[in-house]
């Protein structure tokens, strides 16, 4: 007798097994077809006759985002996009080192409030940018780095200069993408541009393999070899390669929106602003510390400046906020920050971060009420509850918050004695600087005296770029930027070598302004070759090299602590002559022309106005001005 209990499951099992197997197979086939782009190819066209190339799509997006300059060091991988940029009127500026290209893009980003763009070739071209990309990340600068790459099919197959570039840049960039089809260039770049400027700004990386940048007929020649293996295998390979080619180019030239996507910028809530208004309205000795983030768009610098003036709270300016109030503004306190912070009852950290610059928060008094505002939550709370505690921590755009705060305070004023007390301390400190500047030094020129004269000579339309150790740190005390966004330093990464790139970006953005670069002689070594770039591109900037024949900021500590000057010594090299060899103008300042410092500076200015890049080699001696300041 048949046992239904045994036969029934067997009858039901096979059909459902078959169903599941067929379903899985179908799903796998559909998935594979999707991956191979077969469905997309049903609906869209490959234009095999077109001579257009993906570089044109790159350039179109850049132009639609208002990009005016692209910095590069050329390589075959990226030639199409450079040529396309040139055709669309985007100025292509080629430097002598990829790191300079990215530093220049960083400067453009900071000065224009948009994205700075650099393009470099695959492999070593990209690895050469790493320091500048990291610097931009630490400085929260929106830079778009475009990198060439081996063709999509040859990646991981031993192609020239092919490395895993994505893994290299993922930790450095807030957005990384590798474009795999020509039609993806435009949306990927739009997303990258938006990511760079949204939230906490920072660098983004888009990898563009050669086959998405070159025209169809050239890629076809490389991708589908004339001779293929015979037989079934040959036919399969041939079909696969032809399909890859079709998928690369299908829909490539269909019109797509190229312009900017909306940005996502965090804003303080009205309740948070109100709580800060209440804290501040009860303050007797409020103090404002403005950091780089305060200068980010969307609020223009002039509007922020007006808000800070209306607020009427004495303030210290750091990073990109330096110069916000111009020269000698009564609210701008420059010296004795630690002492001022100890006395203040309310401290507003607007874009200032409790990292090493504020002694990790230890510089703040436990008695002060601290309000901190920052776009980035981690930065905002850095070292909090260890060395300091915020009364109010507000995640949002700094300048927008400042505007609302000032509105909420409705013209409240503070007793003038507090600001006057701080100004008096400033005057006393600056008197000691003057005394030190008048002291003789054992040999060459007193750097303080030179920098005082720089301060007196510097024109109102100038931009200052600083790159070096002690010489430029001294300048930070003595030389005042003339307006907002007119002081460019590397930021918290403390990178030597930013000078030429920053100067290049600054002068291109502001061709009518004078760009004065203050260099240590050590730091200048990184930038010297870029005087070739300045000459070729007719970019007249002026370098002032504080030449003390050494890496003094390091040797100043290394010698007394460790008893050796090893690796810290340089020579009084003729940097002015080296620059002349590159086609720039060179001037020398030494004891010989001690009484003519201002005249030499003015000669340099004149030569710049005549269109020449200039290097003034300034031989300087030792002072004790920076004794006690540490560099680790
Ligand atoms: C890329 C890089 N390398 C090394 C350092 C370490 N460092 C900081 S200051 C300094 C000395 C700078 O010498 P120079 O530019 O001549 O300025 P000086 O202190 O002599 O005025 C060095 C080597 C650094 N900050 N960045
Ligand atoms: Mg030096």
UniProtKB/TrEMBL annotation:
It catalyses: (2R)-hydroxyhexadecanoyl-CoA = pentadecanal + formyl-CoA; 2-hydroxyoctadecanoyl-CoA = heptadecanal + formyl-CoA. GO terms for cellular component: acetolactate synthase complex; endoplasmic reticulum membrane. InterPro entries: DHS-like_NAD/FAD-binding_dom, THDP-binding, Thiamin_PyroP_enz_cen_dom, Thiamin_PyroP_enz_TPP-bd_dom, TPP-bd_CS, TPP_enz, TPP_enzyme_TPP-bd. The chain crosses the membrane at residues 12-33. Its cofactor is Mg(2+); thiamine diphosphate. Residues 273-403 form the Thiamine pyrophosphate enzyme central domain. It is a single-pass membrane protein. It is found in: Endoplasmic reticulum membrane. Residues 467-618 form the Thiamine pyrophosphate enzyme TPP-binding domain. One of its GO terms (molecular function) is magnesium ion binding. The keyword Membrane applies. Residues 53-168 form the Thiamine pyrophosphate enzyme N-terminal TPP-binding domain. Keywords: Endoplasmic reticulum, Fatty acid metabolism, Lipid metabolism, Lyase, Magnesium, Membrane, Metal-binding, Thiamine pyrophosphate, Transmembrane, Transmembrane helix. Pfam families: TPP_enzyme_C, TPP_enzyme_M, TPP_enzyme_N. SUPFAM superfamilies: DHS-like NAD/FAD-binding domain, Thiamin diphosphate-binding fold (THDP-binding). It comes from the Eukaryota. One of its GO terms (biological process) is fatty acid metabolic process. Belongs to the TPP enzyme family. Endoplasmic reticulum 2-OH acyl-CoA lyase involved in the cleavage (C1 removal) reaction in the fatty acid alpha-oxydation in a thiamine pyrophosphate (TPP)-dependent manner. Involved in the phytosphingosine degradation pathway. This is 2-hydroxyacyl-CoA lyase 2. It comes from Marmota monax.
